[in-house]
Please model this.
Amino acid sequence: MSMELFLFPNFERLKPQYIERCVYELQRASHDLEGNIENRAKERYETIIEKINRREPLLKKDYLVLAFCLSRLESEGYLNIFYKLFRKSIKSFNGVSSFVRPFASYIYNNGLNENTRKIYNLFRRIRPKLPDKPRYGVISQLLLYNKDLADFLEEIKINIQSKESIVDIGKYCHNIFMKDSDKAYCHYIIDFIVSNHKKRELWPEFRRMVEVMDFEDKKKVFAGILRCYIDNYEIESYPRNWFEFIGMELREPNDQYNKRWDGMDEEKDVFRRWLAYSNVQDFFVNKIKGGDRRRCNFWLQYVDCMYRVKHYRDANMALVMEFKHHIIVEFAQQSNACYVYSKEHLTIEEIEEKLKPGVLTSTEKINFLKNQSLRMTRLLHRGNWEYDFTAYLHRLGYRKERRAHWDSFRR
Model:
């Protein structure tokens, strides 16, 4: 419709205080209107309940009011009465299309139980009286071929999972009278995101959707994605965009005060594995001038044995790797030795405390990480140093094979 059909007020000559006054009056009038509508709906509901208690016959419009209040009927013990009365009155209704959304809404928001099965029974009973129009075609077919609510919901889930995009899901949900505010929609969309999280073309839309979810639903998405990689040790195949996003939302997994990872022990192990891999790779490839692929390849073989990996720029570009019982420190310059400490004598928490800004000078930080009295040994990068490192790490109990030691790190 052309905007020329509308007249717009000219605010140029109005003072700011007059505009503010108009806005205030409009907001107050809107609030009063909403309050009146809510009060009238409440009064109508209570009037109908009084009619039920007096055993007076209900009109179709009475049933429609109650249909939009099914959760309240359930909480007040009237749902079974509504179910019986509605069944007896269906034949007298000329049209039933107005009941589709309230019945669907109650089912989509309350899951599978005895009460939703009753409403589904009523839903199927009104199906033959639905208008023969495209708008009701999909929902009518679902009701016709699914006698049980469990089958009805399962077919919806399968149909949603088969869609190619969120737009397609939106169109389908419109046809089954499901809104994006319904709990079932959220459940199905989470499953869809998890199943299709590797599709790069869907990533921007998925991220926007997850960003506006409440925190518990976000965790369901992240947990679902992380579970896809529990038995996948090819870390380079992990989708970096999702793992970085998960890190931003759930934050540091090793912080004992961070409760965002609660209830996600296995999933947290997957993220730690990726985080250690990313930190080791980032250090040797990006932080060191020119890179050091040789050392990078060596330590990436032990990522499954690592718990935390920290990079300290102000300590002569040090990389601190925490293993089950040991701390191993590498420095950017290959001429530096690799230092190994027992966690009985040095922990990563102590390193964090000492290397805080302002505590030690740069020289003191380096000397602290090259502590002659605390170290177990220093390993040199000479010749085929990988063989010496491998043998020493083997004696400490760390091996290159997959699935090593992760359970021992859970706290």
Remarks:
- The first strand starts at residue 308 and ends at 312.
- The chain is about 55% helix and 5% strand.
- The chain has a mean pLDDT of 89.
